[in-house]
Amino acid sequence: MKIISNIKDMQTRCLAARAAGQTIAFVPTMGFLHEGHLSLLREGRERGDLLALSIFVNPTQFGHGEDLDRYPRNFERDESLARECGVDLIFYPNAEAIYPADYATYVTVEGPLTTTLEGTCRPTHFRGVTTVVAKLFVIVQPHVALFGRKDFQQLAVIRRMTLDLNLPVEIVGMPIVRETDGLAMSSRNVYLAENERKQALALIDTLGLSVQMVRDGERNVSKVLESARQRLHVEPDLTIDYVKICHAQTLAEVETVDQESVMLLAVSVGKTRLIDNGSILC
Ligand code: PAF
């Protein structure tokens, strides 16, 4: 396994692999790897001759007052987990390399896909995500890139960008990996104090209750959302950013639950922001 920080070196190495007929599988991350990331790496290992992982805490996707400075980092641990998953190349650039002082180019997916849900709470977030992912694609030149479905909207936005820019990359969305008690794996879970960790389970509980309500015959979205909010409000340290039921592809809010409906939730527990989602008619 090689660790490369220099952009030109990474690009040269990846272009040479392509020229030699190798398929490149790529997992972009911000590091502090957990089982969710490892599931992407294992799938990437199956799909690519060369498996590349990037570790870069991307400043442009954090808004003012968000957790950029305290975002968890542990490169040594990430390195050994990557080795166990059979990663060939770790791309580990610094912020000055990705965004030099005279940097001026951004990639933006316009319209409702980026202005709803996360976009209402974090207006500059997706511009940062699409900019860095586009740059990483140009550097790593992957045939296939893997992303977790926990960031459901991010996945939709990246698919849109890839399609709109005709990028020759297959985007693969992988299932959410959960702790045994159901909490979706996230690097941010380490922020949670013990009592907050318990309250965070309201997310999976709410998803489960909503699925059950739909199974019992309720199709009216307002009613399902009302009961979801009631469940979340039970937790004293939990504040709701949004709970919505949307069409899985367009992310437009729907009035009636159907096979395409997905529930998306964003809450803060104490100071920690958590998101989750799930199909609602399954
Ligand atoms: O999902 C993430 O970890 C990040 O948003 C990504 C895709 C690596 C871009 O920085």
Main sheet attributes: strand count, strand direction, barrel closure = 6 strands, parallel
Strands in their spatial order, largest beta sheet: 1-4-3-2-5-6
Q: Assign a percent range to the helix content.
A: 25-40%
**Total number of strands:** 9
Kindly report the average pLDDT value: 98
| Tally of distinct domains | 2
Rg, rounded, reads: 19 Å
The distinct bound ligands, ions and cofactors come out as: pantoate
How many helices? The count is: 11
* Ends distance: 41 Å
Task: Using the alpha-carbon principal axes, give the shape.
Answer: globular
How do the SSEs run, as a string of H and E? EHEHEHEHHHHEHEHHHEEE
Q: Look up the CATH topology of the largest domain.
A: Rossmann fold
The share of residues in extended strands comes to: 15-25%
Second-tier CATH architecture of the largest domain: 3-Layer(aba) Sandwich
CATH superfamily of the largest domain: HUPs
- Secondary-structure content class: alpha/beta
